[in-house]
Amino acid sequence: MTALPLVFDAPKRGLPPRHLADLTAAERAAAVAELGEKPFRAKQLSNHYFSRLTVNPEEMTDIPAASREKLVGDLMPTLLTEIKALACDDGTTRKTLWRAHDGTLLESVLMRYPDRATLCISSQAGCGMACPFCATGQGGLDRNLSTAEIVDQVRSAAAVMRDGQMPGGPGRLSNIVFMGMGEPLANYKRVVAAVRRITDPSPEGLGIGQRSVTVSTVGLAPAIRKLADEKMQVRLAVSLHTPDDELRDTLVPVNERWSVDEVLSAARYYADTSGRRVSIEYALIRDVNDQPWRAELLAKRLRQHLGQLVHVNVIPLNPTPGSKWDASPKPVEREFVRLVNAGGVACTVRDTRGQEIAAACGQLAAEN
């Protein structure tokens, strides 16, 4: 068996200079003091970034011009530059390609629904998990994103919603899912810090509730347990994709390190510790993992490990150009969902969006 092409902590090359969003409230005050400014300037900066959602120094009129230039220059360096924004679904899905300071490309997708607005964000540029049906996984890992690069995707989308730049008029960004480029738990420290910035009350953070944040993983079992011990209320989503180790070793190579049983045991620990139901992500692939017996086995194993503390999201595969992988036919999908539900586990099909704008994570960056 070949060695696993996995990278769990990317080298720090290319990480941007420190940013306000990298720092805790106490660290911001200390950083401001180091620049010779009064510590209360840190709260003013935080209010502009996290509450007013601005990085434009000209709008920070409560700070003297000379101090403003120094503070913004040192603590609010430009992190992400929008390269391209594509819209579909009558404008309610918007995918943005960002370029970081070192040329690194990453993506985020904003989806507006009648009752919510959800942003799918990236935690790494590329991914080292090497899942063969995933555009990002096939491109490999470039580097981890900094805490602030993760948070800035959210700040930018929150401003888009507030300013009514999507159909439906001004609104509020309500949900965050770490399901873009990268394996969040392979960038553990920065992702946890980003979750805290996203969920801390304004003006210390963006004020989005922890229960409205979902962190996805392909199954890094020790990191799942570590995340549980953070005692946060974020939802955990596990990209399982098949209930049997033999196939999962191929679809999700990290399975060679942590088996299905180990992953589901860690997920149960997370559910018990957080009191939150775990989501199981299952990309349905034609003639690969869509057989009736796999649906029945999935229900059996989830019921054994997680009882009622689980919900399965079946995801119609969004195939990448030239890929041998394709979505299962709708009748097969319906039967798969029926069998999982019949096995005593709640199962639904996730709403899919953005196929015409290459919204499967990694596609737009690969094209550019």
TrEMBL record:
EC nos: 2.1.1.192
UniProt remark on cofactor binding: Binds 1 [4Fe-4S] cluster. The cluster is coordinated with 3 cysteines and an exchangeable S-adenosyl-L-methionine.
Keywords, comma-separated and alphabetical: 4Fe-4S, Cytoplasm, Disulfide bond, Iron, Iron-sulfur, Metal-binding, Methyltransferase, rRNA processing, S-adenosyl-L-methionine, Transferase, tRNA processing
Binding site for [4Fe-4S] cluster: 127, 131, 134
Coiled coil (residue ranges): none
The keyword Phosphoprotein is assigned to this record: no
Localization per record: Cytoplasm
Cofactor(s) required for function per UniProt: [4Fe-4S] cluster
Protein name in the entry: Probable dual-specificity RNA methyltransferase RlmN
Originating species: Amycolatopsis japonica
Gene this protein is translated from: rlmN
